[in-house]
Amino acid sequence: MESVLFWILGVISIITAFNAITGKNLFYNLLLLASFVLSIAGFYLLLEADFLALVQVLIYVGGIVVLLLFAIMLVPKLNVHFTSSFFTWVGGLFLSLLFFILLNLFLEAFPLALYEKGHITLGAIASLLFTEYFLAFEIFGVILLIVMVGIVIIVRGGEF
Amino acid sequence: MPLIYYLALSALLFSLGVFGVLTQRNAINVLISFEIMLNAVNLTLVAFSQFFQLLKGQIFVLFTIGVGAAEVAMALIIIFVIFKTFKTIDLDEIKLMRG
After folding, report:
1. CA-CA distances (angstroms) from residue A117 to A112, B3, B67?
2. With CB atoms counted within 10 Å of each terminal CB, which end of chain B scores lower, N or C?
3. How many percent of chain A have pLDDT more than 90?
4. Which domains are present in chain B?
């Protein structure tokens, strides 16, 4: 059962990712990105990381993809397609294939088949997040505030 | 499923993202490719965290998702400013700093 789900989700994620990158209409690309992100959330459920699956759906589908969709719909001039040259396609394909082969060489170098999957609960994440990683959590809030203020400043035309 | 399948799948998805960044000319398309790369790395972290029984991986993924959201908002604003300045978001046409 688990392996069947893995292959279904894997095929969905690869196809949607490829079409989201190479598609010509940006609107459809973003909808494909949303389905790609949902398939990644499915992988998290498969790995029994249920809280992360929830966060993934909330922030990616509900936040990032909707933000990009609104940007596209408010400024329709952004939705244009530029055809890359043949040299760019061949170079990009060659370099990314080289990268993929390199990553797989790394994978073969380590004995990864020994490990068995376990279960991690939400309470354990929370207790670690609010004790050992509490400083990082606070700094992360400051980062979000800085981004918000920066965006407001840039949108208003740089008047500090 | 063994761990190696998850890692191979994330490697493939990350390479797809690299391919998109190298070949696409629309800035928002490049942003989409960045998101795909980010998600592939997150999948790797969660897989390692579950198989090695280490919680740190999942907490790290929480932070990367949050910082990724901030990054997308910032990148979108930068793309808007570029569009206002250059009247295009074709990355091959934006050559302010050519040598």
Report:
1. 12, 8, 28
2. C
3. 48
4. 3-98 (1.10.287.3510)
